[in-house]
Amino acid sequence: VPHLVADELARRGEPVRHLLSWDDYDRLRKVPAGVDPSFAQHIGRPLTAVPDPCGEHESWAAHFKAPFRAALHDLAVDVVEVSQTLMYTGGAYSAQVEHAMAHRADIDAVLGRYRTRKAEPDEAGEASGSDYYPYKPWCAVCGRDTTTVTSYDPRTTQVAYRCDCGHVPDPRPVAETPGKLVWKVDWPMRWAYETVDFEAGGVDHSSPGSSFTVGSHLVREVFRGEPPTYLGYSFVGVSGQAKMSGSVGGAPTPTDALEVLEPALLRWLYARRKPSQAFTIAFDQEINRTYDEWDALGRAVAAGTAAQLPALARDRAARTASRALRQPERLVPFRTLASLADVTGGDEAQILRILGDLTPQDPIRELWRTEPRLSCARSWMLRHVPPEERTEVRSSPDDELLSALRPAQREALELLVGGLADDWSLEGLTNLLYGVPKRQLGLPLDVQPTPELKAAQRQWFVLLYRLLVGRDTGPRLPTLLLALGPDRVRLLLGGGRPQPDAA
């Protein structure tokens, strides 16, 4: 949401900075699923002081920043990065911290308006009243924030604290005592420091008494600034989950999404909706419909028939004020590429052969012309389609089924095999497949489907699937036949020749 706002300002010639503030100086709150439980020893330490769980980067924070940075680049989201670790440890906020500590009573009074019980601690565990301090030091011995400030002298700026580990250091100037402001104070402090004009956040931050409400009072009454224009956004769900949740662990990341969704399409999922609308990103079979809708809108835009708002949303998804996103030079339906990846096992030579057959008028000669969609389709088939749903073509004819065919079924196979050489193209095979039941029923090839014809076609397709892949369903039959090639199709269908009776 901030990117789309910043990009629109840039399109209109306004100077704009999109700040990405890394909360890398926050504490490790819990060990997410999939991480070694021994990392519990680091709970309470800043994320830049926690080791990388995979041992590849200098810290926990750096480990998770790296793929996110790469995803932002692929999505053409240009940001100015601000590390809260560097800002705090580098002294950028020293004056703001001293100011907050000197005005702790004013801060406590604002927070008190929204506490449900006057004596209860706030979200960081600090008591209210004379014992309230908005600063959490990191313990000099154990490195955690399990500390309690015991005194602060606004004249000397010296702060004293004790830690649950038993450490009780001598008072030191707060600027020389590593730590950070608690969240509800830290956020408005940054608004004033950076003169933030716009910020978006989850709807959970937007309710009465929320962080934004409290922060709006604090930035005015304590830090002498103005709150930004604020826009609350709803949750983004994924297949099988209510919303993305990085703290729980296991939620898809932008990298995961970009493995199966073209960057422009992923941007479009956000750009086409109001931020207040919740939506779901599909990693399951619904992904085919998502790609179909994206392609249909592209055709409408090209034809000049798209409505204004959908056309604008697609434009904002496909390019930014500074650059266009990568899209396929040759557009092939996602479901077709996924089927090819399925039936070929991802073999590039076979995929290229079939793509040539699919585009006989202007054959695709290089796979890169279908990227990044081809890679997305292959990745989706490999990572998100269950093995039992993937296609395994038979290695030899099903002699038992072939020998048990009824005369009408044998005739149908003969009609199919006999017509393979007439028009070996997607359109030709489609017409051939759908035409076999029509011919057997004595109907013209251009007849409109009737219930009887639809039933006959269903039975016919089930027979072909059983003979080709050993089950009742599979990828689209015309694509499957193209993938197998005429020789293998003839082999698996028994050559279309009449088989001896089962007796």
Largest sheet: 3 strands, antiparallel
The neighbouring-strand order within the major sheet is: 4-5-6
Number of strands: 11
Rg on CA atoms, Å: 31 Å
On the 0 to 100 scale, the average pLDDT is: 91
Silhouette: elongated
Which percent range fits the helix content? 40-55%
Q: Please report the number of helical segments.
A: 20
Q: Structural class of the secondary structure composition? A: mainly alpha
Distance separating the two termini: 70 Å
Low-confidence stretches: 117-122, 496-503
Task: Tell me the β content.
Answer: 5-15%
Question: Your description of this structure?
Answer:
With 503 residues, this protein is mainly alpha-helical. Helices cover 43% and strands 9% of the residues. The protein has helices at residues 2-11, 60-74, 84-89, 94-102, 104-112, 183-194, 211-221, 254-258, 263-271, 286-303, 308-318, 334-344, 348-358, 373-383, 399-403, 407-419, 426-440, 451-469, 477-484, 486-492, and strands spanning 19-22, 80-83, 135-137, 147-153, 158-163, 172-173, 179-181, 198-202, 229-233, 236-238, 279-281. The strands form five sheets. It has a three-stranded antiparallel β-sheet, with no helix packed on it. β1, α2 (60-74) and β2 form a beta-alpha-beta unit. α12 (334-344) packs across α19 (477-484). The longest helix is centred in the last third of the chain and has 19 residues, at 451-469. The radius of gyration is 31 Å and the shape is elongated.
